[in-house]
Amino acid sequence: MNIDGVLKKIGEIGIVPVVRAASFEEARQAVDAICAGGISVIEITMTVPNAPAVIREVVRKYGDKVLTGAGTVLRSEQATECLDAGAEFLVSPGLSVPVIKTAQAHGKLAIPGALTPTELMMASLEGARVIKIFPCENMGGAKYIKALKAPFPGVELIPTGGVNLSNAAGYIAAGAFALGVGADLVNVAALRAGKAQEIIDAAKKLVEAVREARAAKTAAH
């Protein structure tokens, strides 16, 4: 899929689940639960043991039905490894120009992390079309996204860090392109207890919250 297609899909779903797990099997179960809950975008972080193998397995199993990306990509060689495994997008917690360049060389989307206006400017100058704001909730949450959107109306932002069902609507109203959601959705403890249904239900509620928030925002305009 090309960059425009990836951006369109992320924008449509509006949620990027961040999968952190202690094993290949745990990550695979988390992905299955998220997909069963109606979210067809997945970010497998490089902190998962043998993350490229997880990415390869998700791509093999779901194909084009699920947009699979890699997270916590810090270095160019990691980026190459993930892209070779089939990742359609790369996410970093901060600004790594080598990762951006590697993604661009492969015609794939890089989503660098930023927090300050200076970092946002630097990421934009490197060609980033969508930027992860992390850790967002610590910086004021939805109010911070709204403040950043004023001087950067053309840059799409994905708040991550502390984003959950209770504040999802606020982030959408503030202008978030999509929401990066980690432990509040990918509940590893529930998986280990054999309660994958909890993740499925949480995914469904989050999808509905984003849909309702977007509808309310459209109606207000």
Account of the protein in words:
With 221 residues, the chain is an alpha/beta fold. The protein has one domain (3-214): TIM Barrel (Alpha-Beta Barrel), CATH 3.20.20. Helices cover 49% and strands 15% of the residues. It has ten helices and nine strands. It has helices at residues 3-13, 24-36, 51-62, 76-85, 97-105, 117-125, 142-149, 168-174, 188-192, 196-220, and strands at 15-19, 41-45, 67-71, 89-91, 109-111, 113-114, 130-133, 156-159, 179-181. Strands 5-4-3-2-1-9 form a six-stranded parallel sheet, with helices on both faces. Helix 2 (24-36) links the parallel strand 1 and strand 2 (41-45). Helix 2 (24-36) runs parallel beside helix 3, helix 7 (142-149) runs parallel beside helix 8 (168-174) and helix 8 (168-174) runs parallel beside helix 10 (196-220). The longest helix has 25 residues, at 196-220. 44% of the residues are buried. The model has no long low-confidence stretch (mean pLDDT 97).
CATH class: Alpha Beta
Strand content: 15-25%
The side-by-side strand order for the widest beta sheet comes to: 5-4-3-2-1-9
* Helix-strand makeup class: alpha/beta
Instruction: Give the N-to-C terminal Cα separation.
Output: 32 Å
Radius of gyration equals 16 Å
* Count, helices: 10
Q: Please give the largest β-sheet.
A: 6 strands, parallel
CATH architectural name: Alpha-Beta Barrel
CATH T-level topology = TIM Barrel
* Count of distinct structural domains: 1
**Overall residue-averaged pLDDT value:** 97
Could you spell the SSE succession in H and E letters?
HEHEHEHEHEEHEHEHEHH
Please identify which CATH superfamily we are dealing with.
Aldolase class I
* Shape type: globular
Fraction of residues in H or I helices: 40-55%
List the quaternary state of the chains: single chain
